[in-house]
Amino acid sequence: EAVFYLDAPVSNSGRLSGLIRECSHEYNMAEYYAVDFGADGMCFEDPALRYSIFPPYFLCRNVGLEKVMPLISQEMKENINMDNKKVYAMSFAKVYLLLTAKAEKKGRTIDEVNEIICWLTGYSTEEIDDARNSSVTYGDFFQNAPCPNPNRKAIKGVVCGIRVESIEEPLMQEIRYLDKLIDELAKGKSMDKILRR
Known about the structure:
Structural class: alpha+beta
Shape: globular
Strand order of the largest sheet: 2-1-4-3
Number of helices: 9
Largest sheet: 4 strands, mixed
Distance between the termini: 49 Å
Order of helices and strands: EHEHEEHHHHHEEHH
Protein backbone atom coordinates (compact mmCIF):
# COMPACT_ATOMS: atom_id res chain seq x y z
CA GLU A 1 0.00 0.00 0.00
CA ALA A 2 1.18 3.54 -0.74
CA VAL A 3 -0.52 6.80 0.19
CA PHE A 4 0.22 9.87 -1.94
CA TYR A 5 -0.73 13.40 -0.90
CA LEU A 6 -1.08 15.76 -3.85
CA ASP A 7 -1.13 19.49 -3.25
CA ALA A 8 -4.50 20.83 -4.47
CA PRO A 9 -3.30 24.07 -6.14
CA VAL A 10 -0.87 22.23 -8.42
CA SER A 11 -2.26 22.28 -11.95
CA ASN A 12 -0.86 18.90 -12.97
CA SER A 13 -2.24 16.93 -9.98
CA GLY A 14 -4.49 14.92 -12.31
CA ARG A 15 -1.61 13.90 -14.57
CA LEU A 16 0.49 12.94 -11.54
CA SER A 17 -2.37 10.83 -10.19
CA GLY A 18 -2.52 8.94 -13.49
CA LEU A 19 1.24 8.37 -13.52
CA ILE A 20 1.27 7.12 -9.94
CA ARG A 21 -1.69 4.82 -10.64
CA GLU A 22 0.03 3.38 -13.71
CA CYS A 23 3.26 2.73 -11.80
CA SER A 24 1.56 1.24 -8.75
CA HIS A 25 -0.54 -1.17 -10.84
CA GLU A 26 2.56 -2.35 -12.65
CA TYR A 27 4.07 -3.33 -9.30
CA ASN A 28 0.80 -4.73 -7.92
CA MET A 29 0.57 -2.02 -5.27
CA ALA A 30 -2.56 -0.62 -3.68
CA GLU A 31 -2.66 3.16 -3.64
CA TYR A 32 -4.72 5.93 -2.11
CA TYR A 33 -4.85 9.60 -3.13
CA ALA A 34 -5.60 12.54 -0.91
CA VAL A 35 -5.75 16.00 -2.43
CA ASP A 36 -4.84 18.58 0.21
CA PHE A 37 -4.26 22.34 0.20
CA GLY A 38 -1.45 21.99 2.75
CA ALA A 39 0.33 18.87 1.58
CA ASP A 40 3.77 20.48 1.66
CA GLY A 41 3.39 21.27 5.35
CA MET A 42 2.34 17.76 6.28
CA CYS A 43 5.89 16.41 6.15
CA PHE A 44 6.68 18.52 9.21
CA GLU A 45 3.57 17.41 11.10
CA ASP A 46 3.44 13.67 10.32
CA PRO A 47 6.66 11.68 10.91
CA ALA A 48 5.22 8.84 8.83
CA LEU A 49 5.60 11.02 5.73
CA ARG A 50 9.26 10.25 5.18
CA TYR A 51 9.49 11.15 1.52
CA SER A 52 9.13 14.72 0.35
CA ILE A 53 9.96 14.93 -3.37
CA PHE A 54 9.99 18.41 -4.90
CA PRO A 55 7.36 19.93 -2.58
CA PRO A 56 4.72 21.24 -2.90
CA TYR A 57 4.03 18.76 -5.70
CA PHE A 58 3.49 15.62 -3.68
CA LEU A 59 4.30 13.75 -0.51
CA CYS A 60 4.32 10.00 -0.17
CA ARG A 61 3.75 7.61 2.72
CA ASN A 62 6.59 5.14 2.75
CA VAL A 63 5.38 1.68 1.80
CA GLY A 64 7.10 0.06 -1.18
CA LEU A 65 7.92 3.42 -2.70
CA GLU A 66 11.35 2.39 -3.96
CA LYS A 67 9.53 0.69 -6.84
CA VAL A 68 7.75 3.78 -8.12
CA MET A 69 9.89 6.68 -7.01
CA PRO A 70 12.44 6.61 -9.88
CA LEU A 71 9.75 7.10 -12.52
CA ILE A 72 7.87 9.73 -10.55
CA SER A 73 11.10 11.49 -9.64
CA GLN A 74 12.12 11.72 -13.29
CA GLU A 75 8.72 13.13 -14.23
CA MET A 76 8.97 15.76 -11.53
CA LYS A 77 12.52 16.74 -12.49
CA GLU A 78 11.33 17.40 -16.03
CA ASN A 79 8.48 19.55 -14.70
CA ILE A 80 10.82 21.43 -12.38
CA ASN A 81 13.27 22.14 -15.22
CA MET A 82 10.45 23.54 -17.36
CA ASP A 83 9.21 25.72 -14.50
CA ASN A 84 12.75 26.98 -13.80
CA LYS A 85 13.21 28.07 -17.42
CA LYS A 86 10.01 30.09 -17.24
CA VAL A 87 11.23 31.87 -14.12
CA TYR A 88 14.65 32.58 -15.65
CA ALA A 89 13.01 34.08 -18.75
CA MET A 90 10.86 36.57 -16.80
CA SER A 91 11.96 40.18 -17.00
CA PHE A 92 13.77 41.52 -13.95
CA ALA A 93 11.65 44.67 -14.12
CA LYS A 94 8.43 42.68 -13.74
CA VAL A 95 9.67 40.63 -10.80
CA TYR A 96 11.16 43.71 -9.14
CA LEU A 97 7.73 45.37 -9.18
CA LEU A 98 6.20 42.30 -7.54
CA LEU A 99 8.87 42.22 -4.84
CA THR A 100 8.55 45.92 -4.00
CA ALA A 101 4.75 45.72 -4.01
CA LYS A 102 4.86 42.82 -1.55
CA ALA A 103 7.16 44.78 0.76
CA GLU A 104 5.21 48.05 0.54
CA LYS A 105 1.93 46.26 1.23
CA LYS A 106 3.39 45.30 4.62
CA GLY A 107 4.69 48.77 5.38
CA ARG A 108 8.29 48.22 4.27
CA THR A 109 10.16 50.38 1.77
CA ILE A 110 11.70 50.14 -1.68
CA ASP A 111 15.02 51.25 -0.14
CA GLU A 112 14.93 48.16 2.10
CA VAL A 113 14.24 45.92 -0.91
CA ASN A 114 17.18 47.49 -2.74
CA GLU A 115 19.43 47.07 0.29
CA ILE A 116 18.56 43.37 0.39
CA ILE A 117 19.25 42.91 -3.33
CA CYS A 118 22.57 44.79 -3.01
CA TRP A 119 23.59 42.66 -0.03
CA LEU A 120 22.67 39.43 -1.77
CA THR A 121 24.12 40.08 -5.23
CA GLY A 122 26.74 42.82 -4.99
CA TYR A 123 24.88 45.11 -7.39
CA SER A 124 24.75 48.82 -6.55
CA THR A 125 21.43 50.66 -6.32
CA GLU A 126 22.27 52.37 -9.62
CA GLU A 127 22.87 49.01 -11.28
CA ILE A 128 19.53 47.73 -9.98
CA ASP A 129 17.84 50.80 -11.49
CA ASP A 130 19.62 50.16 -14.80
CA ALA A 131 18.46 46.53 -14.77
CA ARG A 132 14.82 47.37 -14.13
CA ASN A 133 14.90 49.94 -16.92
CA SER A 134 16.33 47.38 -19.36
CA SER A 135 15.17 44.10 -20.89
CA VAL A 136 17.45 41.93 -18.73
CA THR A 137 15.88 38.65 -17.64
CA TYR A 138 15.59 37.54 -14.04
CA GLY A 139 17.92 34.63 -14.69
CA ASP A 140 20.60 36.82 -16.29
CA PHE A 141 20.35 39.33 -13.45
CA PHE A 142 21.37 36.66 -10.95
CA GLN A 143 23.79 34.85 -13.25
CA ASN A 144 25.73 38.08 -13.79
CA ALA A 145 25.69 39.19 -10.15
CA PRO A 146 29.03 40.92 -9.55
CA CYS A 147 29.67 39.74 -5.99
CA PRO A 148 27.23 37.24 -4.43
CA ASN A 149 27.43 37.56 -0.67
CA PRO A 150 29.14 34.51 0.89
CA ASN A 151 26.88 34.88 3.94
CA ARG A 152 23.85 34.07 1.78
CA LYS A 153 24.58 30.40 2.50
CA ALA A 154 23.28 31.07 6.00
CA ILE A 155 19.80 31.69 4.56
CA LYS A 156 17.60 28.73 5.50
CA GLY A 157 13.92 27.99 5.65
CA VAL A 158 10.90 27.38 3.45
CA VAL A 159 9.71 29.61 0.66
CA CYS A 160 7.11 28.64 -1.95
CA GLY A 161 6.93 25.25 -0.21
CA ILE A 162 10.61 24.55 -0.82
CA ARG A 163 13.58 24.53 1.58
CA VAL A 164 16.02 26.99 0.05
CA GLU A 165 19.06 25.20 1.44
CA SER A 166 17.97 21.98 -0.31
CA ILE A 167 17.56 23.42 -3.82
CA GLU A 168 20.01 21.65 -6.15
CA GLU A 169 19.83 24.02 -9.13
CA PRO A 170 22.33 26.82 -8.28
CA LEU A 171 20.62 29.61 -10.22
CA MET A 172 17.19 28.80 -8.80
CA GLN A 173 18.68 28.70 -5.32
CA GLU A 174 20.00 32.25 -5.78
CA ILE A 175 16.53 33.38 -6.83
CA ARG A 176 14.88 31.65 -3.88
CA TYR A 177 17.35 33.28 -1.51
CA LEU A 178 15.91 36.64 -2.54
CA ASP A 179 12.35 35.32 -2.22
CA LYS A 180 13.14 34.19 1.33
CA LEU A 181 14.67 37.52 2.33
CA ILE A 182 11.71 39.48 0.93
CA ASP A 183 9.39 37.11 2.80
CA GLU A 184 11.25 37.92 6.01
CA LEU A 185 11.00 41.64 5.24
CA ALA A 186 7.25 41.38 4.70
CA LYS A 187 6.88 39.46 7.96
CA GLY A 188 8.39 42.35 9.91
CA LYS A 189 11.93 41.14 10.62
CA SER A 190 14.57 43.76 11.25
CA MET A 191 17.14 44.46 8.54
CA ASP A 192 19.92 43.31 10.87
CA LYS A 193 18.32 39.87 11.12
CA ILE A 194 17.48 39.70 7.41
CA LEU A 195 21.05 40.56 6.41
CA ARG A 196 22.48 38.07 8.91
CA ARG A 197 24.45 40.70 10.84
